[in-house]
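Data availability (excerpt). The following record was deposited with the supplementary files.
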Amino acid sequence: MYQKGGMRVTIREQWENHEEQWLSERAMRSVDSKGREHPIPPCEIRTDFQRDRDRIIHCKGFRRLKFKTQVFLAPKGDHYRTRLTHTLEVSQVARTLARALRLNEDLAEAISLGHDLGHTPFGHIGEKTLDRLMPGGFKHNVQSLRMVDVLEKDGKGLNLTWEVRDGIRNHSGEDEPATLEGWCVRRADRIAYINHDIDDAIRGGILKPFELPHRCLEVLGDTHSKRINTMILDILKNSTDEPFVRMSNEIREASEELRDFLFERVYNDNWRAQEERRCDFVLSTLFAYYVENPSLMPDEYVQIVYGEGVERAVCDYLACMTDRYATDDFTRLFVPNDFAIR
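Predicted structure:
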């Protein structure tokens, strides 16, 4: 806190003044936030979006991301991505875009760090299973919003600002983000996973570098860093008029072609079919078991049964599990222990 014209100015107010002077007129300023469902006193040090970032980093769901699958299930190597490292890479790209476009970097960072909190164990395999089992379906972006609104802090939620919640909910899916910072995260998510999933697939022997679509490499670059750099620079070059935070047609089409290639050769290929069936079996079996025995779930999920029904509670419980927790729980419940005569 310091004196300015005889008035005491907090560090937060200094940040808010900086935002007013530096950010683009298109940016979301902290003082213009629609606020929280439950108002709280302002912090002397942090803006509202900085507070949201910190709340997400310190929540249990964020810590669990390090043991959730990105693409490869329980990888043995040290360098494969997990859902946590994916989240950090998305944050880096989103912050780069926001900073260069003079948007609110703190808002982009908070959305990035929370965007995948609702992802299931076993990655998109688990998402498909819960989507099949859960009445009304299951989408990880919707579950991510439910994580920060309902499931964290023993049912109290994190009480985040409207803008961060909107960005988390709309980082994927049909609905679009309401802020340009949310759009930075939506673009960053795709930039990150297209490129790091190629990197992991090559490391795992699923792809050879020469198998990548030649036209895409000519347009985007022949290395991981070149492709990311091309995509980011193209967005910055083309984000001068509406619609904002966009790619040129050439780069967008090459990126979509590369993404389609990944779906064909990595995400949906036969090499992982057997593991998909195993993961589906584990989650399906656990789902049926806890629907029949909801009292055996932790108390925080049992409480959901009374308010929202047993399927909703079981879905929340399974979605929060890490890969190893789901596997260990299945083993505990359904795999016989060794028998020893004493």
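Summary of structural features: The CA atoms of residues 28 and 57 lie 21 Å apart.
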